[in-house]
Design a protein that fits this description.
Elements: E1 2-5, H1 12-18, E2 25-26, E3 29-30, E4 36-40, H2 42-68, H3 71-76, H4 82-92, E5 99-105, E6 113-118, H5 125-141, H6 155-163, E7 172-176, H7 181-196, E8 201-205, E9 210-211, E10 217-218, E11 228-230, H8 234-237, H9 246-249, E12 253-254, H10 259-262, H11 267-274, E13 284-286, E14 298-302, E15 312-315, E16 318-322, E17 332-336, E18 341-343, E19 346-355, E20 358-367, E21 377-379, E22 381-383
Parallel strand pairs: 4-22, 7-8, 7-11, 11-12
Antiparallel strand pairs: 1-4, 2-3, 5-6, 5-19, 9-10, 13-17, 14-15, 14-17, 15-16, 18-19, 19-20, 20-21
Helix pairs in contact: 6-7
Length: 385
């Protein structure tokens, strides 16, 4: 693994805007990086990223059944009350899921380490599946990369295939908070994949979901919402005005309610309990576990944090960096620190994609801080050799 510089495409911004990638810059900061790439060898991708990601996904699925059947485990994840039954029934029905992203620490030395599983509302899928592949083909055509350069990237084909597993007998709604260019762009891209799979689609804002006289979810045209992809966390769903209908209608939504287990940082200590010493796991504990006191270099994470919010990094027991945010009331986990790949550009985290139940692609985010946050940059990758 190494980071290289490469001539940027002169018209990459125009190309980004033309395909709806308006969030290539966010809040005045660059998000997409066109003049660099992370390089991997094929064996490195297959043995250290793809294979372990597949195994980690299977380990997670193996654990979900035990978690949903344990009131104590669900309480540990801050999933309580009636919500436990919604999550449990979703798993027992085998509600179909779509995709997720493992965040991995990997610096080219030793096995990749799981940092977390973004299994409910992962973004950067458009950048991974579509725009970095276009970057690759353009750079090869320009002679900046050899003709046999490759990527670990069958994400778009896998998404179309996964959408094809859903019945096409109803409108497939797609919902997000439209005020967020990234969330809307991600959702519109997934809509396009669904169209390629033969679905009729409709976008709506999460705040536009209504309820009819029969207690069914409806869109702005008063059509019943029978299936809806939502780029909106389950813990937020459970707090919405329409949460009361979820007990009978959680089957409407993709990702399914059981993904609330996999997207929770409490999964990390439960995985460590099930698979202690696994080469792709880091020692992880709930904050009240006395075993956490044995860690010298560690990270404290809220159970439900996103985009690095309220994450705190400690070295030799001393806090060295932290990120602000609104999470933490739900509880914390403590995870052993793992070194990230570091270059002059900052720290890199690997995003390894699971679509359906298959590891199928790689994206890289980098930041000046070792805590990957909302404005961390996206850098394409290549496979050479």
């Amino acid at each position: 693994m190494r980071r290289i510089s490469i001539p940027p495409r002169r018209d990459w911004r125009e190309k980004a805007n033309a395909v709806g990638f308006s969030f290539h810059e966010m809040y005045g900061e660059p998000y997409w990086v066109d003049d660099a790439a992370y390089c991997f060898e094929l064996a490195e991708v297959e043995d250290e990223i793809e294979g372990p990601s597949q195994e980690l996904h299977e380990m997670c699925l193996d654990l979900v059944g035990d978690i949903v059947r344990s009131e104590e485990a669900l309480d540990r994840l801050a999933i309580s009350g009636e919500i436990q039954d919604i999550v449990r029934r979703s798993w027992e029905r085998h509600d179909r899921h779509l995709y997720g992203r493992f965040d991995l620490a990997y610096d080219g030395n030793g096995p990749a380490k799981l940092l977390e599983y973004n299994a409910d509302t992962p973004t950067s899928v458009f950048e991974t599946a579509y725009f970095q592949f276009n970057w690759l083909t353009d750079q090869m055509a320009a002679g900046n990369l050899a003709p046999d350069t490759d990527q670990f990237n069958s994400v778009q084909e896998s998404l179309v295939e996964a959408f094809g597993q859903f019945s096409r007998d109803r409108i497939f709604h797609f919902a997000a908070i439209s005020d967020s260019p990234e969330d809307q762009g991600t959702t519109v891209y997934l809509m396009d994949c669904a169209v390629q799979a033969g679905h009729r689609v409709q976008f709506l804002d999460m705040r536009e979901i209504g309820i009819d006289a029969r207690g069914q979810y409806t869109d702005l045209q008063n059509r019943v919402i029978e299936r809806c992809f939502k780029l909106y966390p389950w813990e937020f769903m459970f707090q919405e005005t329409y949460a009361a209908q979820l007990r009978e209608q959680s089957t409407v939504f993709v990702e399914p309610a059981w993904k609330a287990v996999l997207s929770n940082k409490g999964l990390l200590p439960l995985l460590w309990q099930r698979y202690p010493g696994h080469p792709n796991l880091l020692p992880s504990f709930f904050a009240d576990d006395p075993a956490a006191a044995d860690l010298s270099d560690y990270v404290i994470k809220p159970l439900l944090s996103r985009e690095g919010e309220n994450v705190r990094l400690f070295r030799a027991g001393q806090e060295v960096v932290s990120a602000p945010g609104d999470y933490g009331a739900e509880g914390f986990v403590i995870q052993a620190h793992a070194p990230l790949f570091k270059s002059d550009a900052g720290y890199a985290v690997l995003g390894s994609w699971i679509v359906g139940d298959k590891a199928c692609g790689l994206g890289v985010r980098e930041d000046r801080s070792p805590i990957t946050a909302n404005l961390s940059r996206y850098v394409p990758h290549v496979i050479v050799g």
